[in-house]
Amino acid sequence: MPCVRTLLYLLAALGACGAVAFLGYCVYFDQKRRDDPELKRRLRDSEAEQQKKAKEQGVQSLKNEKLQEFFLQEMQMGELWLSRGEPRMGVEHLSNAILVCGQPQKLLQVFKQTLPPMVFDMLMRKLPLVCQAEMNEQECLEDDPE
């Protein structure tokens, strides 16, 4: 029995020495890593990149919210004008809604099923004009030196 007990003590001592050696190894390389001048630069670059990505995502989210708000507002205004018997004003607002819609083909299918044929025809004639005006405006913005 004394042999087994000695063996257990020896294994415990070896385990403790291994743990101390491992901790020393970790402390040594952590200190070496912290003293590395490139580490601080890499950390700053990484943090700046993360902040830039977060800012871009925030701006994109804000743009999406504004577009969605504009879309809903234009849809409501179009419906309001149509219900008041003013199809030209209604078509104006509905065409603006189609311009900012993410899936304009599906929206046009819904309009085809729900709008009176005369109003839908007005909308289909209005869309190329609105799209052309939008393209001209985009070209003007791209040519603007500011």
**Broad structural category:** mainly alpha
Please give the share of residues in helix.
over 70%
Distance between the termini: 90 Å
Strand content: under 5%
CATH superfamily of the domain at 44-140: Mitochondrial outer membrane translocase complex, subunit Tom20 domain
Average pLDDT works out at: 82
- Which blocks of ≥5 consecutive residues have pLDDT under 50? 137-146
Name the CATH architecture of the domain at 44-140.
Up-down Bundle
Q: What is the class of the domain at 44-140 in the CATH system?
A: Mainly Alpha
CATH topology of the domain at 44-140: Mitochondrial Import Receptor Subunit Tom20, Chain A
Give the beta-strand count. Answer: 0
Report Rg.
34 Å
Shape: elongated
What oligomeric state is this?
A: single chain
Number of helices: 5
Q: Element order, helices and strands?
A: HHHHH
Protein architecture, described:
The structure is a single chain. The chain has 146 residues and is mostly helical. The protein has a domain at 44-140: Mitochondrial outer membrane translocase complex, subunit Tom20 domain (Mitochondrial Import Receptor Subunit Tom20, Chain A, Up-down Bundle). It contains five helices and no strands. It has helices at 2-35, 37-83, 87-100, 104-114, 117-143. The chain is elongated and about 105 Å long. The relative contact order is 0.05. The model is unreliable at 137-146 (pLDDT under 50). This is TOMM20-like protein 1. Keywords: Membrane, Mitochondrion, Mitochondrion outer membrane, Transmembrane, Transmembrane helix. Its main location: mitochondrion. The chain crosses the membrane at residues 6-28.
